[in-house]
Every structure is written in C-alpha cells, then in structure tokens.
Amino acid sequence: xxxxxxxxxxxxxxxxxxxxxxxxxxxxxxxxxxxxxxxxxxxxxxxxxxxxxxxxxxxxxxxxxxxxxxxxxxxxxxxxxxxxxxxxxxxxxxxxxxxxxxxxxxxxxxxxxxxxxxxx
Amino acid sequence: xxxxxxxxxxxxxxxxxxxxxxxxxxxxxxxxxxxxxxxxxxxxxxxxxxxxxxxxxxxxxxxxxxxxxxxxxxxxxxxxxxxxxxxxxxxxxxxxxxxxxxxxxxxxxxxxxxxxxxxxxxxxxxxxxxxxxxxxxxxxxxxxxxx
Lengths: 120, 147
What we know:
The complex is a heterodimer.
Chain A: H1 3-26, H2 31-47, H3 51-58, H4 60-63, H5 67-84, H6 88-114
Chain B: H1 5-15, H2 21-48, H3 53-73, H4 77-84, H5 86-89, H6 92-105, H7 111-118, H8 124-146
Helix pairs in contact in B: 2-3, 3-6, 6-7
C-alpha cells in the first residue's frame, strides 16, 4: 500500500470535513442540516461534472464523506435515465444507494437489539 | 439519568472549553481524513482482490457503515464525535451512527414504534433530500436529452 494512494484520500476527506466544521462553528446550521446540505451539494456538483475530478484525485476521500452519497445518487440517476428514459428518474438514485441504505438498516437494527446506549 | 437532547447539549457546552475555530478545524481535518484513509485502505484491498471499481466502492461503503454501527453499539462513536466534530459527522460512518444511535436509544419503546419508527429520525432527511435532488437532476437530464 503506497503513501501516494492514501495521502490524497486523507487530504480530500480532511478538507471536506474541515469545511463542514467551519459551517458548524460559524453558522447557525446544526450538524443534521449540514449533512443534508452536503448530500444535495454532492448531487449538484456531480451533475455539473465537478465532483468526478475530486473522486479521481481523492478516491475514498471524496466517496466516504456524505457528499459521496450524493455523487452515488446522481451517477445512478444519470445511468438509469440514459438506459431506461423517464422511469430512470425514479429508479436510478435509490438503486445506486441500495447497498448503503440497506446496510444502515441492517447494522443499525442489529446494534439496537444487541447493545445498550451508555447512560448519559 | 435520562437527559433530553437540549439538556445534554447545554451540559456539553458547559463542560467543554471554548474551542477556537482553528483547533476545531484541525481536529475535523485529521479525524475526517483518517476515516477516509481507512476507507481508501479497504477500497485498495477489495480492488487487489480483483473486484471491479464499482463493486469495491459499494463494498467499501458497506464496510464503513458496518464500522460506524459497530462503534456506535460499543458506545465509542459518541466519544470520538466529541473530539472530532464534523470529522465524524460528515463521513458515511456518521450516517451509520445517526441510524444506529436512535435505534438503540428507542429500543425501550419496542421494535416497531421504537426501533423501527425512530431509526431514521436523523438520517431520514438525508435520504429524502438526497433522493429528491437526484430525481430533479434525472428529470432535467431527461428533458435535455429530448431537446
């Protein structure tokens, strides 16, 4: 495993998270709102062709942050619309995100039945 | 002791020192960067096993979501988040945490109306507006194709 394959991921992911931190500290936006904002920004940047270069450079540094979820949704929709036409508008996004959503449901549910939250 | 979210927020505010922006950013940068580096390691690992870029990417997401849920179940993720701020919120592990955390918290209200109903109280908006904006993009794309 080479440093040149890991460093861009570290830098890209780090910068994206640092930007979010500025929004948390300097605006009235709650983290929950910022996450929603970042997903939508991910969709928009992907639609404009601006996110792909970031993914090419940073790899997981661009796909692991929640903007990458928007990237996944937008690419899924694009492929589906090209292939299936209008129906792709409704099938593309969720199809591309299916594994992530299902994983969150399955692992989240398992966490709830196997673990107890720490008393705060 | 049970606390409401507001009480807890006030408590955290009270016990944590006034944190300057640069220090917050540095912690978010390092922690977020490290989480993404872990993702990159898994991605390279799956690629080296001969999986396609797409399959390796999907598997990486699933792995990171698993780790986020696991660290939440072990009650570790909240401690990490207190230090890291956005560094643990923005990566997909934070999405997993935002699903697992209310699921665990509302387990006492039952599997259906507790776990089932409350699981997406925080993560739901991400899906709603993510899918909504992707559908809008798809519609625009479809119209442009026809022009």
